[in-house]
Amino acid sequence: MSNDVTRVDSAFTGRGFAYPFSINARGGMAMVQGTANVEQAIRLILGTAYGERPMRPEFGCAIHDMVFEPSTPDLVTRIQIEVEQSLVRWEPRIDVLGVQVMYDGDPSRLLIDIQYQLKGSYDPRNLLVPFYLIPSEEQS
Question: Per CATH, which fold does 2-132 belong to?
Answer without folding.
Answer: Nuclear Transport Factor 2; Chain: A, (3.10.450)
